[in-house]
Amino acid sequence: MNSSRKAIVYVRLKDGVLDPQGVTIHKALTQMGYEDFLSVRSGRFFELEIKGDASNIDRKIDEVCSKLLANPVIEKYSVEKVK
Amino acid sequence: MKFGVVTFPGSNCDYDAYTAAKHVLQEEVEFLWHKSEDLLGSDVVILPGGFSYGDYLRAGAIARFSPIIGQVIQFARSGGIVVGICNGFQVLTECGLLPGALMRNSHLRFSCKYVYLRVENNTTRFTQACEKGEVLKIPIAHGEGNYYHFDDEIRILEDKGQVLFRYVDRQGNVTPEANPNGSLNNIAGIINEEGNVLGMMPHPERAVEEVLGSADGLKVFESIRASLATLTAVGEN
Predict the structure, then answer these.
(1) Residue A1 contacts by C-beta under 8 Å, 6 or more apart in sequence?
(2) Is B86 a catalytic residue?
(3) Are B127 and B220 in contact (CB under 8 A)?
(4) Is the CB of residue B43 less than 8 Å away from at least one CB of chain A?
(5) Which residues of chain B are within 8 Å of residue A74 when distances are taken between CB atoms?
(6) Is B57 in CB contact (< 8 Å) with chain A?
(7) Which of A5, B73, B172, B184 has its CA 20 to 30 A from that of B100?
(8) pLDDT(B235) > 60
């Protein structure tokens, strides 16, 4: 029996690319009285459920990240594998 | 000449583009369904505005994998004229036919209004009916039109004359106030290096008759028609 696996992909804007959402969230935090936070950067994550018998999965994850999940012009991604 | 207007699920300016081509320009035009792989002999392909696939993931990111896009890429690579308006521009950057990316507007709001554009280069297939420096009044309607690319890439675009339209004030001055979305260098529209692919956030198809508020957008369509007429004439000689 094959049990499935999971990978979590985090996509965020590259350093230096302005993140208007993060800036707005940071402003809100400051207005709420939380003044200890210097900045906020936003991003998103994807949970990929993977077939237990999948082969070359690292390469495939890398492909879907660069082809679809992230836009390499403005975003970077990292992958965390979960059992 | 024949226009082809691609319809994705969520396109909402396909009829505007169709109407501009058919009733104002009085040229032939066909809708091209996104699942088709046939451009039906189009001389010009328009990727219209809208919210293809609900703008899920990133605007244009899913539409870029529609079957028709493979044909559009092939058509563009062989010199065919492709125009991406608004969401169509986003699709063109996502599929790599145009450089850069369109990010969330810097103020985070959807912006729907008339803007002024300055024609930066009038020696292209898309602007030859304009004067250099001419100011066009054309509407925008987008939430993700903030043009971005790396500094050195922007420099290359500028040096090669690929920046076609810039957001300006009524008098034609580039000012921060005239920039509706935070685009670098007030960039509103660009072409590829070969000059046959245009992407622009403003909607020329919504400004083709005075009764709509402006007919300035017609100049983009008339430029395309004139450039195709020249190409055909050369081909026939």
Answers:
(1) A52
(2) yes
(3) yes
(4) no
(5) 101, 103, 148
(6) yes
(7) B172
(8) no
Contacts of B57 in chain A (CB under 8 A): 68-69
Q: Where are the alpha helices (DSSP H) in A1-83?
A: 20-31, 57-64
Burial degree of B234 (CB within 10 A; 0-12, 13-18, 19+): exposed
Active site residue B34: no
* Signed CA dihedral, B98, B104, B105, B109: sign only: positive
* Type of residue at B235: G
| CB within 8 Å of A81: residues ≥ 6 apart | A5, A6, A7, A8
The beta-carbon neighbor of B61 closest among A17, A20, A68 is A68
Instruction: Specify the pLDDT at position B187.
Output: 98
**What would the 3-class secondary structure string for chain B be?**
CEEEEEECCCECCHHHHHHHHHHHCCCEEEEEECCCCCCCCCCEEEECCECHHHHCCCCCCCHHHCHHHHHHHHHHHCCCEEEEECHHHHHHHHCCCCCCEEECCCCCCCEEEEEEEEECCCCCCCCCCCCCCCEEEEEEEECCCEEECCHHHHHHHHHCCCEEEEEECCCCCCCHHHCCCCCHHHEEEEECCCCCEEEECCCHHHCCEHHHCECCCHHHHHHHHHHHHHHHHHHHC
Helix (H, G, I), strand (E, B) or coil at A30: helix
Predicted TM-score of the model (pTM): 0.93
ipTM surpasses cut 0.95: no
Regions of chain A short of the pLDDT cut 70: 1-2
**Is B210 noted as a catalytic residue in this protein?**
no
Catalytic residue among B86, B130, B142, B149: B86
